[in-house]
Structures are given as C-alpha cells and as structure tokens.
Amino acid sequence: MTTAAVIVAAGRGSRAGGEVPKQWQMLAGRPVLAHTLAAFRGRVDRLVLVIHPDDRARAQALAPDAELVEGGASRDASVRAALEALAASGVTRVLIHDGARPLVPSAVIGRVLAALETGAGAAPALPVSDALWRGAEGLVAGTQDRTGLWRAQTPQGFRFAEILAAHRAHPGGAADDVEVARAAGLDVAIVEGDETNLKLTYPGDFARAEAILKERGMDVRLGNGYDVHAFTEGDHVWLCGVKVPHGRALLGHSDADVGMHALTDAIYGALAMGDIGRHFPPSDPQWKGAESHIFLRHAAQLMRSQGYELGNCDVTLVCERPKIGPHAAAMQAALAGIMGVDAGRVSVKATTSERLGFTGRDEGIAALATACLVRA
Ligand code: MG
Q: Does the pLDDT value for residue 14 go beyond 60?
C-alpha cells in the first residue's frame, strides 16, 4: 500500500489575527505548517501540500520534500485538486489534514491508518462532553441532547480511489471530506481523536498550542552521514571547506569535498529529509560541478526552517594522507561559518585505517559525520 498525506493550507483565514494567513504564522519559532508537515514525515510515502499561489516560494523553502498543488476557491476544491494531482500516482490510501492542526499526535495518525486496514474511511473525533444550549438574543433558548454528537478532527483517511470518485461526484460546498465520502455512500469509522489536536482559529489558540508544545518538551535528533571519494590526478584536495595541498586530487563533481558531503547528509538524516542526491540530483545539469558549500548551506537552512539548531557535529576523515591535524582548526572554522554556528560546536578529526582496505591503500578518502539537532 502506498499512502499520501494531503495537507490543506491554501486558505487566507485571518480570524487568528496577524499579517499573514494562520498556517504561515510562527508557532514556537517556526511556521505552523512546519509542525504540521513534521507530524506526517516518515508516516506516509508522499506529502502533498495544497497552497495559495502567493505562498509557492515559502512552501518550496519549507518543504522541499512535498509536492505543491495550488488550491481552489473552497476547501473541497483544494482537496479535489490534490487528489487529481495524485490520480495516476498509484497511491492507495490518503490522509487529508488541515494545515492549521499542527499538533496532531502520532497516535491519532496511527489510529486512522489502522482503521483503513479494514475500512474505506476513518476519521478522528472526540465525544461532546459539555452540555449544549441553543441561544437567542443573549439568552438560553433551550438545551440540545448531546448523545451521539462528536467533534470532528483530521486527518480524515480514505481509500484513494473511493475518495477521488466521491469528490468527482460531489456538487461542492462540503464542510469536510467525511461529508463528501458519506454523500458517496462510504462508511467512515470514528477513531479516538485527541484534545491537543486543536485547529488554530483564534489568536488565543496560538498560546494554547505553545503551551502544549512546551509540555511535550525538547526534541533532540541525531543523524549520520558517510561518503567516499577516490583519488585521481591532481595537486590538492578540498576537505571540510579547506584546500589542502596534496600529491593527488579527489574524483567527483566539483570539489569532491568528502567531509562536507558526509556532514550535509548527517543533517538531512537528522531531519529525516533524504540526502544530498535527493535535494541536488546528480542527473540535473544545474548541480553538476556545484560547490559543496551550497549543499551544506541548504541543509543548515532546512534545519532552521524546521525549527532546529545544531547542537554539535563531529566529522571523522579516514585516510593515510594528507595529514589532517594541521588543518583541523581551519576546517572547523570553515564548516561553522557555512552553517552559521560557533566553531566550538564543530569537530573535525581524522584516523588512518592501519593501511587496511581502500583508504589504507591510498585509493581514496572516506568520511563519517554525526549531527545532533536540538529544538527547544
Ligand atoms: Mg560525495
């Protein structure tokens, strides 16, 4: 089964106040959508972000791993556009989620996915626990029985073919995708929602959301990277941003900076957002010969767009020659400058492999890197 998440974020809603639409406002130091996307990353095979055309540039910067689809005039038109974009993709299940629900717990996503193992549709909800009144002109005009009433949340999950057909058949104007599904005769199971899965609507909701995030605590992430480049003819190598005179050069696109490549991959790895090859495909001519600092700078920007800072990183170069020690401090300073962090958070060291293996035979250089990312 292939699962896609469709994050609906095309609205211009301003009830939450502020200059920018609520899904782009800052929540605990990063855009609301950064939280929302992070909740689905790693849970689904494809991420689709439905945006307003004006938001394309910031969406690309925030979510290079998502497919961007421009939304329509209404919520259901926006969802329909995303489903149509996936129509030929082979996706078998889809989770449709409000971009303004940034705190959706992993367990809620899990319950929707589990219910889709046996049913065509499933959505989280919470039973109404407060008494319900009807009111008129500031007075209580009557009470409403709450038996059987639920507060609907997202993600609402469906078998893909069924919900696409349901949207194609629907005249429009539905409140949510469950309504669209039911209009097409699909059964939608109710799974347990969560009080923290709130939809940011009013200014006060942001303070509540920040308090929930604070309670969830610090997020620490580790990533590793590994890279190898072979020696070729030449008179210098680039290692961790420093040009080191040597009787040979490293083979590869541009500077073949094996240490910087490993570190870049460690940061992408900590974010669970792929590797250099995914962000800068070697098959794309525009990246042929690109200098390695472009990759590392991109990884550091992506890290900050997701709300993380670099706790520390550690790069180990494996080679018999050249000697790294005399250059290590310059390498730490170069990497720190590119990432915009203190050099004290960057370690560069080296080891030989006791003349064993390809590094021992002086056929090339290997590099390992670890990055620790922290979000307070
Ligand atoms: Mg490389």
A: no
